[in-house]
Amino acid sequence: MTGFPEICDGRVKTLHPKVHGALLARRDVPEHLQTLRENGIETIDLVCVNLYPFRQTIAKADVTRDEAIENIDIGGPSMLRSAAKNNASVTVVCDPADYDRVLKEIRRNGDTTAETRLQLAAKAYTHTAEYDMCIAAYMRREAGLNEKLFLEYDLRQSLRYGENPHQQARFYGAADAGAYSLANARQLQGKELSYNNLQDANAALCIVRDFDRPCCVALKHMNPCGAAVADTIEEAWRKAYESDTVSIYGGIVVCNRPVTEQVALGMKPIFLEIVIAPSFTEEALAVLQAKKNLRLLEVDMTRTERTEMQYVSVNGGMLVQQQDTQIETLTAEMCVTDKKPSLEMFGDMQFGWTVVKHVKSNAIVVVKDGHTVGVGAGQMNRVGSAEIALKQAREAGFTDGLILASDGFLPFDDTVALAAQYGVTAIVQPGGSIRDNDCIVKANELGICMLMTGVRHFKH
What we know:
The chain is of the alpha/beta class. It has three domains: 17-143, Rossmann fold; 158-298, 3-Layer(aba) Sandwich (Cytidine Deaminase, domain 2), CATH 3.40.140; 326-452, Cytidine Deaminase, domain 2. It is built from 15 helices and 17 strands. Strands 5-10-9-8-6-7 form a six-stranded mixed sheet, with helices on both faces. Strands 14-13-15-16-17 form a five-stranded mixed sheet, with helices on both faces. A two-stranded parallel ribbon has the order 1-2.
């Protein structure tokens, strides 16, 4: 067509006046058409281009920079942009989903409609913008540059409203959303998820992601009201429910194992908003689908080492941080008191330390036998959170052998003294207060074991 060969190993082939003149010449301008005739150029009325697979290439674990760069398309985006600019006359197609529509219009009318061409042009510019953004983000990572932030999210759902009925809201999913993501959830039944549903469900998914053992979490208002680990998902569900049989009403439950009929029968009498699991057995579905308003979601819970970034909007800006996926393995060397932890204590301390990082700070979690028995969240002082959690444990009948976990250091020894009154025998906390020694002295005085991890897990 161009009379000029591909050069530079195919890097240059469509960047030629016979291509872009044919695309960009305006059909309503006689001088443009005269120029085409003088140069032996015929008009092009339709461009259909699939770009080099750059995104798929850089997604490969072993991709090299040279391989990535060779998959940066130059001529393809140029043709799409030229065709889109001249959409008054040229049809541009960059998505196979549009093939049928375009073919039907051409067969019916001899050409596409002006409305279709405009829509396809907008789609083409969106496509090339996303493509260039993906390249820019990759190249900036390779170059160690971070003064720009490129994000790509696709609309998953227009929500009925936001946190409150007077607020508009939408749910967008990341193009590369992975495991433990609601963006890829499969809803089996129930009405659409609300803004608050999505917030709560995401918080519960973050908790079960931290556990390898069968785990079940019941959650309300971004905080766990019950969480448990066990040898089976049936036992984990029972213990999570018994952690707080009142607050679970109208809550969300997430299991990191398939929901079985036994678990479903336990859930059936309870009013729940959502149940999330990697899958449901046929018998479990038969039980739960009788509750027509109950939302059932299947979410990929494949274990992965991928580190997700967290984006939080503030007025006129964006905060970005790595998600807090770190979990410290508790060791005997962390013990700072005369009393040392038993093996049973270690298990509950590890469980409590893992759960407390998912509770709004100031956070206190009280646990026993692999499940939460008291949760104190979001209070303005730490002893206030401790009072809530410890009173909840006592009201549920748990009065001895309790483990207390704190997401931040104990600023005074008052929390230690209070814990002893409610039957706490071991505390795990970050340490780092100028009064750490006061807490250690008080713990020794009261016969309490205390571990200091050296790491805090605030959740604001």
